[in-house]
Amino acid sequence: MPKVSTNLLFGLDKGRLKSVRHVVLDMDGTIYLGGRLFAETLPFLATLKELGIGWDFLTNNNSKSRADYVESLGQMGIVVEAEQVVMSTDACVATLRRDYPEVRRIFVLGTSGMKKDLEGAGFEVVSEDGCDAVVVGYDTSLNYESLCRAAYWIGQGKPYLATHPDLVCPTEMKTILPDCGAICALLESATGRKPDQVSGKPNPAILEAVMNRRGLTAGEVVMVGDRIYTDMRMAREAGVLGALTLTGEATRDEVTAPASTPDLIINDLGELEALLRSSRSIPL
Ligand SMILES: [Mg+2]
């Protein structure tokens, strides 16, 4: 892809970057692709630290547990606290606590890592006996028997939650990775029901939860991601500055839908690093 100069769209006030105190980073396509860390990522994080800007990682991909992410990021040289990894599972837990306070026992279509995180949040993950609700995530361990079981409980009218809407997980391999949304589409064909709630990106609640937890206002946060219809749409709906990086899925030509339009397009994290650094020298 040829290098093009950074576009600041829709009259973005460069001074707005000066008030940024926290960066929320999508992971796949933003800090790495597949298992390959981008060359710009570690210098970017080092500059955030130098400038006193905090960060969290935010991902819809809950095929791994939070502990798995902390470990794999550590292997890439990124040392994070567990609380810096925010996942669609967390958003689903928040939805359950807020809207379904009676739910304790859940039937889960998800990996053992996802189940571990749900158990850590205080829910009982059941396999055979009755359940209070069905939760579907990115189940890379999907098997037919549990699919049938989930469909049965959904057909029985139990609360039905999807952790995120993604249809596929991005990959550079010669395959297609059906994600949570595709599994829910299968269940809809079988049961006639769509999920009652879909929690992860682009639902702004997950980003608002980060801001509440860290005591941040929308004007102090920038959301960086590579997907227009999830990362950028969520940023817009949460009133947060959205920076679209071209290191993953989106291309510059795709920036058309007004509801999802990013405030800023960057070729990579190195460009945002330079912008944040230069914003520090703009007089207020
Ligand atoms: Mg991504």
Key terms for this structure?
284 residues, alpha/beta, Rossmann fold, 2 domains, seven-stranded mixed β-sheet, five-stranded parallel β-sheet, 9 helices, 16 strands, 35% helix, elongated, disordered N terminus, binds magnesium ion
In terms of topology, how is this protein built?
Layout: E1 7-8, E2 22-25, E3 32-33, E4 36-37, H1 41-51, E5 54-59, H2 66-75, E6 85-87, H3 88-99, E7 105-109, H4 112-120, E8 124-126, E9 133-136, H5 144-155, E10 160-162, E11 168-169, E12 177-178, H6 180-191, E13 197-198, H7 205-214, E14 221-225, H8 228-238, E15 241-245, E16 264-266, H9 269-279
Parallel strand pairs: 2-5, 2-14, 5-6, 7-8, 7-9, 9-10, 10-13, 14-15, 15-16
Antiparallel strand pairs: 1-16, 3-4, 11-12
Magnesium ion is lined by residues 26, 28-30, 225-227, 248.
Overview of the structural elements:
By secondary structure, the protein is α/β, with parallel strands linked by helices. The chain has helices spanning 41-51, 66-75, 88-99, 112-120, 144-155, 180-191, 205-214, 228-238, 269-279; strands spanning 7-8, 22-25, 32-33, 36-37, 54-59, 85-87, 105-109, 124-126, 133-136, 160-162, 168-169, 177-178, 197-198, 221-225, 241-245, 264-266. The protein has 2 domains: 7-60 and 202-279, Rossmann fold (3-Layer(aba) Sandwich); 89-198, HAD superfamily/HAD-like (Rossmann fold, 3-Layer(aba) Sandwich), CATH 3.40.50.1000. It contains 9 helices and 16 strands. A 7-stranded mixed sheet has the order 1-16-15-14-2-5-6, with helices on both faces. The chain has a 5-stranded parallel sheet with strand order 8-7-9-10-13. α5 links the parallel β9 (133-136) and β10 (160-162). It is elongated.
